UniProtKB/TrEMBL annotation:
Recorded GO MF terms: 3'-5' exonuclease activity; nucleic acid binding
Name assigned to this protein: DNA polymerase III, alpha subunit
Domain spans labelled OB: 277-353
Domain of life (superkingdom): Bacteria
Amino acid sequence: MSLREIRITRVTPVGPAPTYNVTMRAPLHNYFVNDLLTANSHSVCYGVLAYRTAYLKAHYPAHFWAAVLTSELNDSDKVARYIERARAQGVEILPPDVNISEHGFTATAGRIRFGLMAIKGIGEATVDAILEARAQGGPFRSLFDFTERIDPKTLNRRVLESLVKSGALDSLPGTRAQKFAAIEAALEQGLQAHRAAAAGQVSLFDTLAADSDQPPETELPRVPDWTAEESLAGEKATLGFYLTGHPLAGFRETLAAFKSLSYAQLAGQTAGDTVSMGGVISEFTVKNTKKGDRFAVFSLEDETGSIEVIAWPETFRRLGEQVADGAAVLVTGRLEIEDGKPTRIVAEAAEPLEGLRERHAKSVMLRFAADALDTAQLEKLRDVLDRHRGERPLIFVLSLPNGVEARLRAHHTFSVRPSLALVEELQAGFPGCTVVLQ
């Protein structure tokens, strides 16, 4: 049978299977490749394996990447890298879920469900306990139902924190912040439930529950929800990467305006080029030179990868508190390349992405429909501008009924200080206004 006749029509997991090394009796059985002794039988096996693997990757990408990811469960760096490759192939990665996820990554309807064993801080005993409780009692109904059904020996505060931060408990009622605030109470209630069960005790609630479909649930505390940044930080800490979003998502226009290169685009640059890259700082470390001067080394990560950045003493002194773990910044510096791969940026400057466009704006343009500015609106606009007086010129662009645009430059007394507060106040107070920072 030739390779061209092989066609995979179905993928059915069957578990491990034995493999065999075929021994061939022939004069040309063994030969040398790159000074290594090899065999024709090996070459044929590797050729068939390579063909089948490539076929799976092309036609069953979810199954292919689920298998690859499961094989690297304990290496978060590789997991993050393979997930980006799977996404680039159009495969959606679903977050972990205690009511759906298995030990490893699983393919479902062309998507991949995150495996529980890939969450940092979750051991195999805990995952076994979760799957066993789910198989015996069905889906978990709440955080407290979860802690009551899981063996306390496999569940502690650190494990429950990781489950909440990773999003594995998102299918249960309440926000991540509420469940995180209720961890101690949930663990205590779960411990009491297991002690009572071991002692053969039946509580009043258990008696009442016998006459109802579900026992009464303990209410979660009322606390403010986490910000998007806090939720993403939790995912990064427990999964090794951002799963449901990225801190840079809200800065894409800013990065484009400042001609920021992504990590993937750095590969097209030349060693020694001055480049700008926006990203999130991690692994921030301060070190000392032999002379005792302080400098910083950190990773700068965007949605395509990460690169090391070094800020030597003089630069580090200028940057001050603008560089720290978790900060979203635009770094400008000299690119270093080794073996054709970008390896480091020697920083010359770094600025927080928050408010970057406002800080560098040379003027502020306001677009209005001409008939939208009556006397009351003009007075309201004047009050807003008075609160943001500055040195940047203000330009009005008025759309007239006949389709013509009139451009007016305001008197210098109405010059403003560009800021996020100004933009937000204009957008909130004048829904028909478009604010353009130039």
